[in-house]
Amino acid sequence: MGGVRSHRALGALNGVLAAGAGLATGELAAAPVRGEASPVTAVGDAVIDLSPAAVTRWAIEVFGSHDKAALRAGIVVLLGLAAAALGVLAARHRPAGPAGALAFGAVGVAAAVTRPGAGPADALPSLCAAVAAGGALALLTARLRPAPAAPPGAAFDRRRFLAAASSTAAASALAGLLGGRLRATGDAAAEATRAATVIPPADSPAAAVPAGASLDVEGLGPFLTPNRDFYRIDTALRVPRVDAAGWRLRIHGLGVARELTLGFEDLLRRELIERDVTLTCVSNPVGGDLVGNARWTGVRLADLLREAGVRAPSEGGRADQLLARSVDGMTLGSPVETVLDGRDALLAVAMNGEPLPFEHGFPVRMVVPGLYGYVSACKWLRELELTTFDAYDAYWVARGWAAKGPIKTQSRIDTPGPSRSPRAGTVPVAGVAWAQHTGISRVEVRVDGGPWQEATLAAQDTVDTWRQWVWHWEATAGEHELQVRATDRDGVVQTESEAPADDGATGRHRVRVRVEP
Ligand SMILES: Nc1nc2c(c(=O)[nH]1)N[C@H]1C(S)=C(S)[C@@H](COP(=O)(O)O)O[C@H]1N2
Ligand SMILES: [Mo]
To answer: What CATH number was assigned to the domain covering residues 410-515?
Structure first.
């Protein structure tokens, strides 16, 4: 009986080894095609696209900026389990091995060729992966049987099996390493264009951040979020590495009198403005950290649209939606009226004084003060199409999110938190509040549901940025609940009703704090 069980375990091992061979071959074969065609990336991207909104929402909430790594790991684990089962099956019914490998390959091919910008060549990596996995499984399964010349009733040859298993593993490791090396070389070309990019000084620089905009309170982040700490939300399993030299932006569509096509250098030669804008994700839960503030440099989007002959709906223009498309097929739609209303909507080329990091959209992204990222902040931009909200639902809108996404007034307590227990006495309670393009006029804090107490506001940079605040609490020992609310410069108080709405979460941030005697 032990023989049967160990045979089963070896079958499972075969499946896992064959899957490894397939994945490594897929990575290697993707190198000359394109990164997006690698089976795991293509299937992962397709899973993201096909997932119901509730699932992606959950993934962003649970994994935040690590949702991609979690998905990749999930796919590999699931594939490993399925491959182990296939290996066990193949040990009994040999044809099941190649048949199963082909089935997995078909899923990879289907995912890869339906990705935005895919060509027929995108099918190759998954095909190669299927052939490698099927071949490896057939070979390893055969080794679980007695050698052809063995006397009848002989057990299988352990030594021959181990030799086949270890050479499969070694060949996979080699193919994987080579694939990784080739990909690094391809990325290096895009990295070189980014490294060579010199952003000219802005014609309209941002005013210096007022000295009083940053409060010196421990636990409060910097006023400008460093690029490496800036939150990242997108559906790209593999960050696009766009070569700026070949990049083009096309502006066309409804009501466009003169179509425009611009290269990266064309943008850099135009009038550049520099502005501080706080970006926020619609998925940011109350108290969450999917919000960041940066100094962006770029071209005024309104200038380009006017040049193309675009008019706002209030001026008789026919298009009410500006649809941005990225190189990875994402679509984001902003109201034309908002983009042309005089605010500093940008095609940004720099973030905090350096070319956009690849993760944040190199070479060019959109930034519109006052709109959530999913309806404005297109990264790796390649096309701007003028259309209507009736005619086209952008990516997230088609998945149940609101078509229009003005940012809701919010406030957050950054210190103290559940993880730091202050001592009784004067405790600074501090955080940030934002109401982009309107500005913050007041922040209040209360303890244990008591009366609202006015916090001290840090100096305002611009109405498009968040504002830090601090309140000095005479804390007594014990468990307490702190709560915060902000008021915008129109006098509107941040709503109390708690809703994880499809147009941005509302409610007030509460923090439980244990004060030590
Ligand atoms: N191409 C592309 N652009 C995108 C997205 C995306 O998935 N793909 N996500 C949007 C969303 S939902 C947000 S909140 C912002 C986040 O920008 P960041 O990652 O630079 O913080 O990018 C926006 N731009
Ligand atoms: Mo977002």
So the answer is: 2.60.40.650
